[in-house]
Design brief:
single chain, 4-stranded parallel β-sheet, 10% strand
Length: 294
Amino acid sequence: SRSGITEETVKLHELTPRTAARIVFSNAGSLQALGRRDGNLVLELPDEVSGRYGRNKTPILMAPMHVAGLDVQDYWSAIDAACQAFSLSDAASLPVTLARYLRLQQLNRGVNHIYVGTNDPLLRYSADELCQFWNEGVNRDGNDITMSRYLGLPRDSHMNLEAILGTSEHKMAVFLVRTSELSGHPLLSARTDSLDPAHAGLTAGDVDLILTLANVKRCSEKMPTILITVSQVDLTTSAWLGQLWADLTLVYARLIGVDPGSNPEVKAVRTRASAWLADKAAATALLAGGGGAR
């Protein structure tokens, strides 16, 4: 937390032991004070280090990766390659093209909701990253497109797509689909033991992908639909997708004239939560001191 007053981050620090090993990134506020109190490594973020919508080569990302034993240099290279490919000054670059397409759909069709679907457990984290970037960055008065990832394909067709497809006039869909074979699972056979001979010999990956693509096809028949396919899921994939989501949000925010880093509603909730936490602590102390009702 650059400001050091983000209540969730401060409370996470306060709820873990003082002896815990931490790297604290903060320039001021309670978080920085806590880090110094507990003898943590406290690092300030210079102005050149961007926020969530900047290029992602920041210590906040790299330090946890290093601690986890991941290949930071390789990940840095992947993000750098994505930054080079996603030129924000090039109207034909992918994030600019996607942002303009989404804006066009909002203006022409009144799109107000985008369903984000994926068929891979790891890609769900990337889909959630897209939803967080978008919902926090571009939704202001005059722009009411929200994004949501619900459960997970292909089962989502029974849980949520019925409602989305049934009210598709102002909807869109973005699919992030893994096309490679599922990794082996001890409960899954190599091939289906099909009752229908027309389905004989299918693998688990075949079944998953076909059921997923059936959802994609139906959405494309009912609403504007974007399909992004991924042949492998690894840190390089994560780096490219994460940069794409950040750049897409930044470009769209510029198109509609809003500051993606401004979060007035988040600040309002945090201010209220801080006051209520103080009230709760005061009430607890009063009861502990015998001043409560009997």
